[in-house]
């Protein structure tokens, strides 16, 4: 029976991984970090603590648990293949990537003969909640493995939802982001309609938040990142398109008709070539603005705008 998790290898200290790994250190875990960006691991150790590993295999060596949080499941598969020789029986792999459930099941099946269990535990809440350790975590895997991982997950999140077997967490995450993306898109269109009618977009956001039109975007994105013109919420546009593509993939695999979801995904995907690479997901508002021929927030309409 594998013991309690003490040593963690953390692979992928990007915008989300960095604060998540920092919270594991605060919780008392022995953490080694590794990242594809040269020098980032050393910077983390200098600023936060822990140990820097020169490669994923070195990061995984001697770990009770290996955490991956990477852009795509393809990269997770490459890392899993590279660390396989360093994983001992009883090691737990927790993939916190917003990945493809089918691919994750393949990775888990490849690790199982080594006595290595795998969980998929993608997160929601963005960089602010990653920093405070208040992420929502959607978990998939065997109950005994989830029990063992519980102290690790609770160091990073306050809302842990057991969704089912391996891949279930990632399916739930993709579907969550589908709902979030749809709410953002329809909300921006509503603000543009209102502005053209003569309503103040900021006032509209206040009314929506006091009414049935309230959603995460009206609460935490429209004023903060769109009307402010900051567009820097910390989650990339390409990553949102990836998650929407995964949601549609799950829809196809289950034979579920998804006409609105398909349109939503195509709208988000069309913004990538239009706006250029490296955009924040909140910059999607600029797609609707370009279609409407005016931006939200004023200064672009006769008479000064709203």
Supply the key terms.
306 residues; alpha/beta; Rossmann fold; N-(1-d-carboxylethyl)-l-norvaline Dehydrogenase, domain 2; 2 domains; six-stranded parallel beta sheet; three-stranded mixed beta sheet; 14 helices; 9 strands; 13% strand
Would you give an account of this structure?
The termini are far apart. The chain has 14 helices and 9 strands. The chain has 2 domains: 7-166, 3-Layer(aba) Sandwich (Rossmann fold); 171-304, Orthogonal Bundle (N-(1-d-carboxylethyl)-l-norvaline Dehydrogenase, domain 2). The relative contact order is 0.10. By secondary structure, the chain is of the alpha/beta class.
Give the helix level as a range of percent: 40-55%
The whole-number mean of residue pLDDT values reads 94
Give the number of DSSP strands.
Answer: 9
- Summing up helix and strand content along with how strands pair, one would put the structural category as alpha/beta
Q: Could you say how many structural domains there are in total?
A: 2
Biggest sheet architecture = 6 strands, parallel
């Amino acid at each position: 029976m594998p013991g309690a998790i003490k040593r963690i290898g953390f692979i992928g200290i990007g915008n989300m991984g960095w604060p998540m790994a920092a919270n594991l250190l605060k919780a008392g875990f022995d953490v080694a970090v590794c990242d594809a960006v040269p020098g980032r691991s050393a910077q983390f150790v200098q600023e936060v603590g822990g140990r820097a590993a020169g490669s994923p295999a070195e990061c995984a060596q001697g770990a009770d648990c290996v955490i991956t949080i990477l852009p795509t499941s393809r990269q997770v598969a490459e890392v899993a293949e590279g660390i396989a020789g360093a994983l001992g029986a009883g090691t737990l792999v927790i993939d916190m990537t917003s990945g493809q459930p089918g691919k994750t099941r393949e990775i888990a099946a490849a690790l199982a003969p080594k006595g290595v269990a795998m969980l998929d535990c993608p997160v929601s809440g963005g960089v602010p909640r990653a920093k405070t350790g208040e992420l929502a975590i959607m978990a998939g895997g065997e109950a005994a493995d989830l029990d063992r991982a519980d102290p690790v997950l609770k160091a990073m999140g306050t809302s842990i939802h057991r969704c089912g077997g391996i891949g279930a967490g990632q399916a739930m995450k993709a579907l969550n982001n589908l709902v979030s993306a749809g709410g953002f898109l329809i909300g921006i269109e509503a603000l543009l309609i209102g502005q053209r009618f003569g309503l103040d977009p900021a006032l509209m956001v206040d009314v929506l938040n006091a009414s049935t039109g309230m959603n995460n975007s009206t609460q935490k994105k429209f004023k903060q990142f769109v009307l402010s013109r900051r567009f820097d919420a910390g989650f990339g546009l390409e990553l949102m398109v990836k998650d929407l593509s995964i949601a549609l993939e799950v829809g196809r695999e289950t034979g579920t008709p998804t006409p609105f979801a398909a349109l939503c995904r195509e709208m988000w995907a069309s913004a990538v070539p239009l706006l250029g690479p490296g955009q924040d997901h909140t910059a999607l508002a600029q797609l609707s603005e370009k279609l409407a021929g005016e931006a939200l927030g004023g200064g672009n309409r006769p008479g000064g705008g709203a």
